[in-house]
Design a protein that fits this description.
By secondary structure, this protein is α/β, with parallel strands linked by helices. The protein folds into two domains: about 100 residues, no CATH class; about 140 residues, Rossmann fold (3-Layer(aba) Sandwich), CATH 3.40.50. The protein is about 40% helix and about 20% strand. The strands form three sheets. A five-stranded parallel sheet has the order 8-7-9-10-11. Strands 3-4-6-5 form a four-stranded mixed sheet. α6 links the parallel β7 and β8. The two termini are about 20 Å apart.
């Protein structure tokens, strides 16, 4: 259930196109639906403009399928993160899109894309997390561009694309190793930056902790930092920043 669907139901009820009982049946699963193993928050999109999303790890495949089916029946869409190929094939939604690198599955993204989010990855090894961020923002309704493999070991690569920084409304920068790239980008643009540390790196990277600390200690003011490997969280934040002002005009 999203804002437009809710308004449509209320409009049909007001115009006599829908009975009170029919409207009730459409709305009775608000604010959530209890499936025993999961309580699905169908109301979340209305409250926060971000619908509930399925995090696949540690869930039984049958439970994931039930949750996805419930979301599809109520809103016509769903997003699953950190999913496997097995989950995708057992879902059996022919029009669902699966991205093996990031483990993202989604069905029914927003058709109208707004604004512009730029997703930057420092290295090719960081692409799975960058892709998760990109697909999340895309699913939510942001227009997204990507700029991959432009890390600080070859700083001329990012400098050659400065025009892309200025065109974006929000920028996600994904980096492992020492995690220096967000500071570099932050020194080149006035756009809001969301830094994503990844667990990519040698031993002293400490599973992404060194990159996280570098980003938190950046000397560039105003950089937001999400958790290690949290491409999803970065995509949500970038989308919210991206649509600021746009919603006020609608």
């Amino acid at each position: 259930m999203d804002t437009q669907k809710l308004k449509g139901i209320l409009s049909q009820l007001r115009n006599g196109e829908l009975s009170i009982d029919d409207a009730y049946n459409k709305l009775k699963h608000l604010p959530f639906e209890d499936l025993s193993t999961a309580k699905i928050d169908h109301h979340r999109h209305i409250r926060t403009n971000i619908p509930e999303v399925i995090f696949a790890p540690n869930k039984k495949i049958d439970d994931i399928i039930r949750i996805a089916q419930s979301m599809f029946e109520r809103s016509g869409r769903f997003l699953i993160t950190r999913a496997t190929e097995e989950i995708y094939y057992k879902l059996n939604y022919k029009e669902a899109k699966y991205y093996p690198a990031s483990g993202v599955i989604f069905y029914g993204d927003e058709k109208v894309k707004r604004g512009k989010v730029l997703v930057i990855s420092a290295g090719t090894s960081d692409i799975p997390i960058a892709e998760e961020a990109e697909l999340t923002a895309l699913y939510l309704g942001s227009s997204v561009k990507r700029l991959y493999d432009v890390g600080v070991a070859g700083i001329h690569r990012i400098l050659n694309h400065r025009h892309m920084l200025e065109e974006a409304k929000s920028i996600i920068v994904v980096a492992g190793m020492e995690g220096a790239l967000p500071s570099v980008v932050g020194g080149l643009t006035d756009r809001p930056i969301i830094a994503v540390p990844t667990s990519v790196g040698y031993g002293a990277n400490l599973g992404g902790l060194s990159a996280l600390l570098t980003m938190l200690n950046s000397c560039v003011p105003g950089i937001a930092v999400v958790n290690i490997d949290n491409g999803f969280g970065a995509g949500c934040l970038a989308h919210r920043i991206n649509i600021l002002g746009i919603r006020d005009l609608e």
